[in-house]
Write a structure and sequence with these properties.
heterodimer, A: alpha+beta, Sufe protein. Chain: A, four-stranded antiparallel β-sheet, B: alpha/beta, 4 helices
Chain lengths: ~150, ~120
Amino acid sequence: MSMTDKAFDAIVMQLQEQVFDDARQAYGEKGFERWRNPRFNGPLEDADADASGGVLGGCGDTINIYLKFNGERVAKASYTTDGCGSSALCGSFTAELAHGKNPEELLELTPEDVLNTIGTFPSEETHCATLAISALQEALNNYMISVVDRERSR
Amino acid sequence: MKVAISAKGTELGSEVDPRFGRAAYIMIVDTESMAFEAVDNSANVNSFKGAGIQAATMVHDKGADVLMTGYCGPKAFQTLEAAGVKVVSDVGGTVAEAVELLKADKVEYTDAANADAHW
């Protein structure tokens, strides 16, 4: 290898800038900001339910959603994913949308709601929103099962 | 020679992870002694700034001459090319099998990315 470390670093920096430009174009300013600072990322220690470790999408990405209820409504929600930036964005906005909602309202959330909230999103990646909502519904389903079990054991 | 291989686990018997930037681990293997190091790539999985570039820079920093993986995106490929790291893509099987292919000279080095840009 003849290239100096300095020249290599310069190339890496330049590619990094290109990635930021591409991501800004793909996700818009709102999505780009979230991509850089993903909110609601990471497991919830005190979650009432999650999506049984995560839902695997056809693209190979897994998204998990964690829910913590306070009474009837979601007090905290978060996501984890091993997938791409698009999966992370959809997970983050799905967790955001879940906040403050009761089970009935959660059931009404659709992938379109997630995509509308992000605003700008690549059309070939919209399956990530479907995956994030599937994870939310799976987590909700697990929560409802646990509620029924608790009531039965009383 | 040192080879970097994207892997799902931390052993020579682990499966090759087809993803490069978001591979669970990057194995750095010395093809002479078969000594290896499994580099945890999980921080990179959630780096949100171009996982391929980060992983490619790490491969360079570890002194690998060759990268073997499934899919290599354009940014990762450009980074590896700049670093003088040769790339073998469409690799499957186990890490040990990949090393054997390389040692037997049964690999074809690619001259282009074989995956689309993906953040």
